[in-house]
Amino acid sequence: MAGITDFITDYVTWCERKPNGPGRYYVEFTLATNQPDFAEEGGSFGGNVVCYATGTLEFSLEKAKRRTEHSWARFVGGGTQYFSDRTVDSPPTKMYEPAHPFDSTKTEAIGVRIDVLLGSEPCVSVGITLADWGNYEYGFHPDYKAGILYGFSNAIGMNVPAAMYTLSLRRMFQPAPAKTKSIAPRIELSIPQAALRR
């Protein structure tokens, strides 16, 4: 687990220390899933579906208040998910072309969170929330390889046993707005000449 420990701790440290100065430190994610075809009683259900999602995650840190408690780092957010089996028909001029996958008009909202139990050996979990399905939640404890978090969890469809999930992250920084100095307006008094001669 040394690989995933170094990987996720690096993101936590970057967000916590804010090396670029004041601003918004967050993470952009790309999530892809792949599930096999699963035949049952001669039929095929929910097979060979690939999902793609992208969005952003905000960082928060919950430090332990007692020795018996643990500190948590969390990356929480969401994005838009596309599906390979939701296709766009080819235009009439190209009627012999196959339908195009990942129809952008048939997407769903997805919530993603990464919980990190901090310590000598951080424990990492990934949670998924399907907003369009009653906020149905599930998750997995990922493995790590070559900059990718991956694991197995729920698939699309009741008859498919599992799907593989791959998750990549990217650091994002938005500088804080520059502060503008407020200058008091200059007021000039007009004194009548008659008053000055008194």
Account of the protein in words:
This protein is mainly β and 198 residues long. The protein has one domain. The longest helix has 16 residues, at 2-17. It has helices at 2-17, 193-197, and strands at residues 23-35, 38-40, 43-45, 49-62, 72-83, 108-117, 123-130, 136-140, 143-145, 148-153, 163-175. The chain contains 2 helices and 11 strands. The mean pLDDT is 85.
| Estimated share of beta-strand residues | over 45%
Output the strand order for the largest sheet: 8-7-6-5-4-1-11-10-9
The mean pLDDT is 85
Q: Helical residue percent?
A: 10-25%
Tally the helices: 2
Secondary structure category: mainly beta
When the domains are counted, the total is: 1
Largest sheet descriptor: 9 strands, antiparallel
DSSP strand count: 11
Shape: flat
Rg for CA atoms: 27 Å
Distance between the termini: 91 Å
Topology:
Blueprint lengths: L1 H16 L5 E13 L2 E3 L2 E3 L3 E14 L9 E12 L24 E10 L5 E8 L5 E5 L2 E3 L2 E6 L9 E13 L17 H5 L1
Antiparallel strand pairs: 1-4, 1-11, 2-3, 4-5, 5-6, 6-7, 7-8, 9-10, 10-11
